[in-house]
Amino acid sequence: xxxxxxxxAGEIPSYKVAEDDAYYAFLDINPVAKGHVLVVPKxxxxxxxxxxxxxxxxIALFSKRVATAIRKAIPCKRVGVTVIGLEVPHAxxxxxxxxxxxxxxxxxxxxKFEPEEFKAIAAAIAENFE
Length: 130
Ligand code: AMP
Prior knowledge:
The chain is 31% helix and 19% strand.
């Protein structure tokens, strides 16, 4: 079971922003920007492009809804999209609110937030999720 499957199962806590039958979205715990969200399929698969076509198409559409909510909740120009996947072997899409290119850089120092701040960010995105 991957760490993200444990999060989905509620065995490890997360700052959830959205969920449906097939996907789960939560705040990245080491965010490159305020409102940095991970979207994962509930089905365990390591590599994004090994997902079956239906799940891959579905995660794009689910991410669109999450990105729309992020853009409403967090001041930004756009929501950037990245897939890395070198750290956690469970496919995931990074959604990152950005105002400039450098906001997407994973090599920058990560942002720090208190648990209460993470909670408030997740709640603000969740409120705007449709
Ligand atoms: P990567 O697999 O390279 O895309 O990186 C995995 C991402 O997952 C990193 O940005 C981590 O900060 C994030 N991450 C790892 N464990 C957790 C966790 N328990 N809760 C939230 N985010 C996590």
